[in-house]
Structures are given as C-alpha cells and as structure tokens.
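User: tokens in, sequence out, please.
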C-alpha cells in the first residue's frame, strides 16, 4: 500500500488531536498563558495552515503561502480534521519516495504533533486533563484499513 507509514502517522495525529480537544468549551479557544503565547484556536489555525500547505506541496510540487480566514474554535477543529482526510486521500493516490517521506515526518508532521502537545497542556491548565491511556496500544487505523 502507498505511504502506509505516513498514513498511519496522520491517523495518529487525528487520534491524538481529537483526544486533546475532546472536552474543549468555546471559551477554551481563547485561553492564553499571556506573554505572546498562542491560544488553542490560534494553534489549530496554524496546524491547519501547515497541513494544507503540505497537501498543496505534494499535489503541486511547490510551496505556496495561502492565507486562510481565522475561525472560531469548533470551526478550526472541523477544518483541521477535514484537512487530515484530504491529505490522507492525496497519500493514497500519490506514492512518495522515502527521502520525501522522511522530510514530511521531520518537518510538518512533527510540528503538528508538537502543537497537539501544547493543546493538551493548555487543556490540563484549563482543568480538563487528557485521559490517561497507553497510546501505543490505541486502535489507530487509516481509513482504508478499517
């Protein structure tokens, strides 16, 4: 199958992201630690931009900076989850070589995982800690393997 490892990484991102925003309330979107730190809504907006740029780069072979409208927390969550599906669809259609795959993992996909950690930390600080779980045993599957 094409890009199995990348697709599994995307499914992991989806799973971890949904855990991090599971108990989010509308006001959580604007929660801030101050000192110029991003709110959860701003972090998710950035994550969407990174993922969308990655999708376009794979499809068109060149970097493009596209500005997207900032949305409220729930809309940003929904848009990010849709972009995960979009990139997964692209990865099922276009096989990438290993060096390209490694660059995606060390760049945009790792960046997004880092930001999911930030959202999880902000959620804990906002009195909604992520439920404990052995993530290595989670039932994470790509859409085509379900």
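Assistant: Sequence out:
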């Amino acid at each position: 199958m094409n890009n199995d490892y990348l697709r599994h990484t995307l499914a992991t991102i989806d799973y971890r992201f949904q855990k991090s925003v599971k108990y989010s309330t509308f006001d959580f979107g604007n929660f801030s630690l101050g000192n110029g730190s991003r709110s959860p809504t701003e972090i998710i907006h950035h994550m969407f931009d990174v993922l969308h740029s990655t999708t376009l780069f794979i499809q068109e072979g060149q970097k493009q900076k596209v500005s997207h409208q900032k949305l409220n927390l729930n809309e940003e969550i929904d848009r990010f989850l849709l972009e995960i599906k979009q990139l997964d669809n692209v990865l099922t259609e276009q096989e990438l070589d290993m060096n390209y795959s490694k660059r995606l993992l060390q760049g945009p996909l790792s960046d997004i995982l880092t930001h999911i950690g930030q959202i999880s930390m902000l959620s804990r600080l906002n009195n909604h800690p992520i439920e404990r779980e052995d993530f290595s045993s989670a039932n994470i599957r790509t859409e085509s393997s379900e």
